[in-house]
Design a protein that fits this description.
The structure is a homodimer of 409-residue chains. Chain A is of the alpha/beta class. Chain A is 17% helix and 30% strand. Chains A and B meet through helix 2, strand 15, helix 3, strand 22 and strand 27 of A and helix 2, strand 15, helix 3, strand 22 and strand 27 of B.
Chain lengths: 409, 409
Amino acid sequence: MSIPSGMIHPDEARQIVLDSISQLPSESVPLTNAAGRVLARDVVARYDYPAFPASTMDGYAIASDDVSPWREITGVQIAGPDLGLTVYPGQTVKIMTGAPLPHGADAIIPIEMVEQADDHIVMPDEAVQPGAFLRQPGSDIRSGQTLITAGALITGVELGLIATMGYDTVSVSRKPRVAVISTGDELVDPGSDLAPGMIPDSNRYSLGAALRTMGAEIVHSSRVGDDVRELAERVTSVRDDIDILVTSGGVSVGDKDVVRMLLGESAEVKFRRVFMKPGKPLTFALDKGLVIFGLPGNPVSSMVSLELFVRPAINKMLGRHPLVPDRVSVTLATDIKPSDRLEFQRVQVTVDESGRLLASSTGNQISSRLASMLNANALIVIDAGTETIPAGTVVPAILLDLPRSAGTK
Amino acid sequence: MSIPSGMIHPDEARQIVLDSISQLPSESVPLTNAAGRVLARDVVARYDYPAFPASTMDGYAIASDDVSPWREITGVQIAGPDLGLTVYPGQTVKIMTGAPLPHGADAIIPIEMVEQADDHIVMPDEAVQPGAFLRQPGSDIRSGQTLITAGALITGVELGLIATMGYDTVSVSRKPRVAVISTGDELVDPGSDLAPGMIPDSNRYSLGAALRTMGAEIVHSSRVGDDVRELAERVTSVRDDIDILVTSGGVSVGDKDVVRMLLGESAEVKFRRVFMKPGKPLTFALDKGLVIFGLPGNPVSSMVSLELFVRPAINKMLGRHPLVPDRVSVTLATDIKPSDRLEFQRVQVTVDESGRLLASSTGNQISSRLASMLNANALIVIDAGTETIPAGTVVPAILLDLPRSAGTK
């Protein structure tokens, strides 16, 4: 199906977004504030790890070539400072998991493998191999090795490795600063009385929460009526503090003149309509480093557009990899009717007993119906067309949350 | 394989944890602070939504039984306050997407389907169906309907629905307050010089970050040496402020006497050793509402134990559903060697072209090697045994992060 003039394919739109945006500068943060941030520089091992031969068991450190049938216990080395003990022939040092190997020893016998007396142990009949129950220096991590590459999201595991390498600060990308402004004469704040024709503003909250999980900092969030002048004033008051302006609905920000009014003569509208459902009207504009997304007002359209276009933009600013979430294959559990545009349908993906991903529709896909996203953990990508796509067909999907077992719920 | 005396099966251990813990009280938070929290009460629709018949297109509001070939445009109704316009025979009102339907009209004709003149439109030949391009009151949401059940994590979508129902605050469970204390004479703060035998403390950071993503609030985080008295003083100083104490490594908190020293005579050790790998030594104890987890010191053991036992505990306190993450079926991409205990192996799960989940090992599974968790997005659950499990076998897995496409990386 050909794309009508004035519209562009969502893949092309996303590429324009990515090509228009640069990575933000990095900043240094202490370990305790680094979780959830994106690593700006590779983490390289500063030393071998472990740095010393360490016992992997509670046991006795011995020399494996010593043939004495029993060994005098001459000391105890716990995990902690190396006490500088030495194991001489006929001797052993009691040792704990993680403790450094005493001089003269080259193997560990676990406690459960020896007979212990007050001041000595009786050796087992079997020979002990050199290196037994020892972690050798560098066996986990080699000095100079790249442990984590720039662009990784820092979770507990990354943080643990960074700490293990003795770093107390981390270089991360600055968070993109975002203003969210919902527009529309029909909107009131949630909790206010609803006069006929009015609805509570919801996009401001849902977009703000989603943007935060994408790694953005929300520095401004407000609501204006369908008044370009009012919106322009609002934008002027925040534009020096933000990297991205996200608007939803109401005022037709797709109009070139409106964008000029908002941003000035230098503003450039890159696209205004995308060949997709939900979310056809979608403005992307640039002005001297400021990125503007004019999202549609329908709640589902705005959330899907955010996922498809704003998330990659934020990833690019953060230098986060992958820039664009993978599309994975899923099998349709039910027939699907395509629409006249490329469609991102909300589905619930589960895993069947054989380990296959199955996609079931979350019901009526009308773009005003936010409930269709409630139990959705994926968007399936359905080409424009007229023929029903039968259950059993494998289609691409963008996963939004973990798939659950088909047996549950 | 039978379980040695003194150990219990991980499923039994988890059940003991769940049975020992109660849900925390709820609190009311404003919409802007509700994302990431767990809903404490069902969200019930207070009214039909939409509350009024609304246009789904920019177009013209008409009476479908009016046979006039053209209609005079008598007004404009945008999305916003209902202007109280009426459509009489021979007339129409221009209407915008989301706007309330004027009196006397029962259908919308989209702009692209009519011929427009200055002050009138020419009707198409085809009849217009009553209700065309209208969202009827209650078509998305019915008053009284339960929209979101208690126990749901509040993300952008939930927040949008809560706002749409006109609520400006949300009832959420209080966050579990947690103290994390790492123990061991071998530990120094990251960034300090490493004398022989010493290693940087990493667990405190990785456990803290993971606990936060589970929904906990970290109110205390510190490090002590292998000194029960020092640890007891630390615990005494924080115990009134916390719901959960998490320790890692070093001091043998599994010892009944040690727990008594820490918590007092009323303390009760529920279990000390779990038949699993990694993480066999794992203490779970209770004392007058305080929950204590003594995690093993090896970084992988502590992170896996946290996932398997502390996450369900936090979920129970939050009333979050599901309490225990689903196990889903995945197909082994490589042969797997089981161990002498039930094992949770770190794997990378990808999706192949047919939509099947494939699990590949992340390498050496020694429990000190945190790097084995670096690219792991799942734990596969492998029963104790001696026979190699061949590639192609379907095994249960706990997903920790989204699976990616097998084609990438």
